[in-house]
Amino acid sequence: MNLLKDPWIPVLRRDGTTELIRPYEITGLIETNPVQILDAARPDFNGSLIQFLIGIIQAVMTPEDEEEWCERFLNPPAEDELQGLMEKYYAYFNLDGEDIRFMQETGLDSDNTLNIGSLLIESPGVNTMKNNTDHFIKRGNTEKMCPCCTAAAIFTMNTNAPAGGAGIRTSLRGGGPLTTIAVPEDDRSRYNTLWHKVWLNILIKKDIRLTHCKINLKEDEQKFPWISPVKISKEKGTETTFDEIHPVQTYWAMPRRMRLDPPIVESAICDVCGKEIDSYYSSYSTRPYGINYGEGILHPLSPYYSDKNGLKLPVHPQPGGFIYRHWPDYIASDDPNNPRAIVLQKVDERLRDLKLEKVGQSIRVHVFGYDMDNMKARCWYETQMPYFLIKEKIRENFVEYAQRLANAARQVAANTRTAVKNAWFSPDSTVRGDLFFIENEFWNGTEKDYYGTLLEIRSALENKPEMINDILEIWLRNLNRMSLRVFDFYAEQVSPVAGDAKEKNEKNCIPRMIKARDRLIGFNLGKPVREKILKLPAKAKMKE
After folding, report:
1. Domain coverage including residue 103
2. Domain check: are 42 and 94 in the same one?
3. Would 261 disulfide with which of 184, 283, 451, 510, CB 3.0-4.6 Å?
4. What does pTM read for this prediction?
């Protein structure tokens, strides 16, 4: 199978029909029945396939400037044009064969053969199986994989590659990176097709330099690393630096050394997608010390932050997922240390400029990624977040207020968790277990108000700055209201005679609950949140 000229990408068209398409068929029937979304069997495959399509389109038709970008958004290329652009790379995208194979090492010599299911991120690792500790996700659940799922799994592994022991390299962005994809905001728009979702994330020539890689490099192996001998990274000083690769390689980074074993030609059912197949893959060979990408290479689809030494580091999902408290830093910020946010701003500006063409399109941001605990996948998170175009003259103040709102919510969420714990348990109790679900309920309950408050802040900054404090006062009251709602719900789950032996002898723990609730109100509305975080004026004291 060839990943550029054979149909293998599962999609859903606007009329609800599903099919497999070739990458260049992404614009097929775009006026009558366009491809709408990806339709893979797994959400991480969908996340990787959109990056595969972005990567190949970026490789074959990087726009020269904003004008060309806008033209291609309004008038997508025909299938035959895309096919012609991709033809020159066909030889690099064979899934099997004797020569160059997609993301596989030519001539790999290894006696380390793994079950094909080991390509899936959540599968137990080698040491886990050796030590017989695969208690929850068992070995042997995925033994037959169709070519389509195998191709998606190889790309998904290299894009998200987690730690795996000595010499097992992580992805260019580390294990389980966070990815942010701009998507059309209006689901009913004629511009809400898979092509437009891909094109919204294509960088113009000057912006692709934000990767720090060298755009003047001309050789194909500097874009697609599997077409030349792999740079073994066993010794010090063998890291691959941004000076050695073209920006396009950031989409096609290949930290893992592998080669598929020959497919088994017989009828079967794919263990991933459940489809009947004529042949399947059951194993692959691998070795350690693949490409080790050095510091300073920035991936175009991830937000970054700076550590205390000024090193830019990619954001990774954490327990609880990606919620609105992260929005100011990773989506809205124009911090030069976070080039992804800068690109999103430019994309939205271009779309707003297209209003003269009666497009009227804006974006939201699809956020997804694995929460990894070293080698283990704890959870897959994905969500969609709004995006607001902010005028340059108010941007700095807007982001500051957005951060204040989020910081206040973070503190009130922590107050709520502590109050529930104090209502449930006596002060001298030893409490085990994770109570973060309480905070998560608070975050979910205040998310809509957060974005609504941001819109009010934006309007006030543009027209009536004197209204800002009134808006912050309402936000504080809303936080306290949701905090008490969550507290009351969970506090009522405990029997009045719950607690330790001493409390049971005292008949009830209602006084403890009342005290915890009163203290919660005091913490929520007190000086730390009100004055230090939101920077509201001190509340006037009541006269006696």
Report:
1. 9-373
2. yes
3. 283
4. 0.93
